[in-house]
Amino acid sequence: MIRRPVLTLVAGLAVFFLLFPIVVVVGIAVTAGTALAFPPEGLSLRWFADAAAYEPFREALVTSLLVAGLATALALAVGVPATYAIHRRSPRGRNLLQTLFLSPLIVPELVLSFALFQFFLVQAGIDTLSALVVGHAVLLLPYTVRVTGASLMAADPALEDAAAGLGAGPLTTFFRVTLPVIAPGVVAASILSLLTSFNNVPLSLMLTSRRVETLPVSMLSYVQTSFTPMVAAVSTLLLVLAVAVALVTERLVGFQKVFGKSGS
Amino acid sequence: MTTTTVDPVVALSGVTRDFGSGPVVRDLDLDVRRGEFLALLGPSGCGKTTLLRMIAGYLEPTAGELRINGVDASRTPVRRRNIGMVFQSYALFPHMTVAGNVGFGLTMRKVGRGERERRVREALELVGLGHLADRRPAQLSGGQQQRVALARAVVLRPDVLLLDEPLSNLDAQLRVQLRDELARVQRETGLTTVLVTHDQEEALAVADRIVLLHGGRIAQEGTPREVFERPRTRFVAEFLGYRNVLELPGRGEVAIRPEHVRVHAATCPESASDTSAEVLTGTMRSATYRGTFSTATALVALGGGQVELHGVTAGPEPAPGDPVRVELPAAAIVPLHPDQEDPR
User: Fold this and answer.
1) What transmembrane ranges does the database entry give (chain B) (predicted)?
2) Whole-complex ipTM
3) How far apart are alpha carbons B339 and A256 in whole angstroms?
4) CA quadruple A101, B19, B168, B142: dihedral sign
5) What is the pTM assigned to this prediction?
6) One domain, residues B52 and B163
7) I want to staple A215 with a disulfide (CB 3.0 to 4.6 A). Which of A60, A159, B205, B324 is the partner?
8) Mind listing the pLDDT tens digit for each residue in B175-215?
């Protein structure tokens, strides 16, 4: 029956290890009992209702969405023009600039967050939400620069020459020609950025305060004091959100097109 | 404005362009006359594309002056010049329809909607694509994309139409077809046109005048017939396919095309038809049968050395090593002038 037993076993194990944690989390979330136990003791959605009603989580979710949205917008606003300049204007020190924009990927996140903590909260005294937005935007810059840069490199530079030859100024050319052409890259960068910001822990941990928390930080502090399946329920909701984003992306632009072509 | 005998649309004087590693175009004077179809011909690296990009305004000359319709345009950016450019890659906007592409320049010039639509339709009909106005570039064949690019340039009624290797991305058959189409559109619109190409056949077929560039300078210019039949220097001769360049006693350096050189077995009776032909003797090297004729290579003794000559042979080919007689008809022998000082 099974034509390649070893291969099938290895593949099966791989799938098991990928899915097992997810199954456990979802299993705990739908338990009817009060303990973090797997398999669940009976089925119920009570922990979802509890999670949805738990005020700190509700507030943290709003904060997380706000931070993700604003940080993504900020990172795109800085990253896309920067990429354009790097690839199309060939400025002096072009390689240095490129490395600089990718450096948040290389510098350990805790180091970066400590620096931002020192600078924003301690010295500049900026409020928590602004600090979070700016901090996340710094973290997202490499994605926006990299992914839109890949789109730009794939696009024919003669397109912009053609627009100029037809009488378009630099701004018109950027908004009517360049931006529509690299739109799939910008969409991909946005999705990557939203998810990265939404899931981020280290940076948020350093920059949040007791009053303003992102959802992962709020979950972390909840877990430190309480052991109820409510956290599993929130985790399950986050999982569903991520899958939903993936499906919508697939329907709108196609994963292959967005992530496949952008490459490294 | 000074009046001149011709009426140049584009006038370059002393134009030089240097990218930092020596000039690519050097001290060049050139007039493009109103309504003419001019071909800038030359091997890669001869400066022809740089020259075209300076006329378009994508590059500024490092030195010299460029006038368009008598007005100094050396520092005018491309978007303020009235040029129409067709790119090697076509550079069609992939997110716009064919009509959107062709109308883009008119929109930029704030041409009203009614006139814009009419002119877009006319331009598309001119290139035979009236029925494809609503397609996207990706849905078109290479030849159709090329025509859209042409329509997009022509619709602006530019001062000068600039074509940068417009046919090089097409296969051989389509290239010939679109080449003729290009010539037709140019005739019908009467637009002053500059074509950049490395393909001599293309230049000979469509241009009124050929400017052959070498090392950023004009190596020779003239009508296609003048340039092709009377190359002035060794470089021009070799570029145009004169495979035989040799020193003939009493004539100096000359060039002759292989199809004019006749190679006979030495035993063949001499033809009395062409008494003015130069006749050399040598040994047969090799022959290749080509159907209606055979190409032949022979070694002849000339000026104390051995020279390899390429020619044709009719009838039975002499075997390698056989003694042969090589005839060079006087009318086909082109005397060469020494190359200008080596520009490199």
Assistant:
1) none
2) 0.84
3) 57
4) positive
5) 0.82
6) yes
7) A60
8) 999 999 999 999 999 999 999 999 999 999 999 999 999 99
